[in-house]
Design a protein that fits this description.
Helices cover about 40% and strands about 10% of the residues. By secondary structure, it is an alpha/beta fold. Helix 4 links the parallel strand 4 and strand 5. The longest helix has 17 residues.
């Protein structure tokens, strides 16, 4: 593999990335796993699962910081258009496909939204035999009361209202949501594991609260992804955290059922007692999830037969 060529292709994006090579796999196994993080994350939050992909799944692993996150360029927690995320991912996938016959996707939260819209728009881009994992995908925002009702039933009107406000008051596009610091471990929305909470809850590499424009662009992507869900034929494994207070699992069920109505080979598993970041869950749950991803990548048909009701 010409790593210099890969670097030359990706350097103009301005994204920080890591490319880990599995030394024990067969040369004929020309496949790679592309790990796509969530909002307010950075590559270091996934360093503990890298060995599993290299030594257990025996696949190369490519990961990167999203635009505006970690060590990547861009305005922290802001995009002018969701096309920025799609452009980055398209460039990465096309570059990886010059070296690999297929690209497996493993995604979390906002990474799931980016991946979902990407495979809806470019379904053949990952190569034959590719699989897609969604961990707590951001197909809908978790809110409460009247706000949740509006997001569930009147998303188009909410988006139009944002667009009107931005048109009349352009500076509001850059206004940021105000999040209160997590008061204690019990009330954090990230993890049920003390170690990960202490190490990542207030880490300096996190990008902080998103802008209003970022959220509006994500809502547009959510609506587009829902509309494309029934067209996606790739094998999908979706894992949801039962106690998720970040993403709307109702929206995730809705996406999943759209595929199942069209007989897609999709599997959905709920993880009891877990919070949003399943890759930061306690060891027993995390290992169970990783082993399921391994089985899914190696034999998606068998996985579907085993776990589908």
């Amino acid at each position: 593999m010409d790593l210099k060529q890969l670097h030359q292709s990706l350097y103009p994006l301005g994204l920080a990335y890591q490319h880990h090579l599995c030394k024990s796999k067969k040369k004929s196994d020309k496949e790679v796993t592309l790990l796509i993080q969530g909002r307010n994350e950075f590559m270091g939050m996934y360093s503990h699962i890298i060995p599993f992909f290299l030594h257990e799944i025996k696949t190369d692993l490519f990961m990167f910081d999203l635009r505006g996150q970690g060590h990547s360029s861009g305005i922290p927690a802001h995009i002018n258009s969701f096309q920025e995320y799609l452009h980055d991912m398209k460039a990465i996938v096309e570059t990886l496909r010059t070296f690999y016959s297929k690209v497996h996707i493993v995604s979390h939260s906002t990474g799931g939204l980016i991946s979902g819209l990407f495979i809806g728009l470019w379904p053949a881009s990952l190569g034959e035999g590719a699989t897609v994992f969604f961990g707590s995908p951001f197909f809908g925002l978790k809110s409460s009361g009247a706000q949740q009702l509006l997001l569930n039933t009147k998303l188009r009107q909410v988006i139009n209202t944002y667009d009107t406000i931005f048109r009349l008051f352009p500076h509001i596009r850059m206004k940021r949501f105000e999040f209160s610091p997590t008061p204690n471990f019990k009330e954090n929305s990230l993890t049920t594991d003390h170690f990960f909470y202490e190490n990542f809850d207030e880490h300096s590499l996190k990008c902080g609260p998103p802008t209003w424009c970022w959220l509006n662009q994500c809502m547009k992507a959510q609506m587009a992804t829902r509309n494309l869900a029934h067209t996606i034929k790739l094998p999908i494994f979706m894992a949801l955290a039962e106690q998720d207070s970040v993403v709307n699992n109702h929206a995730n069920y809705h996406f999943f059922l759209k595929g199942k109505r069209h007989q897609r080979p999709w599997v959905l598993k709920r993880f009891r007692g877990m919070k949003h970041s399943l890759f930061l869950s306690p060891k027993k749950t995390r290992e169970r999830l990783l082993n399921m991803i391994k089985d899914f990548q190696k034999n998606p048909k068998g996985f579907h037969s085993k776990y589908s009701p």
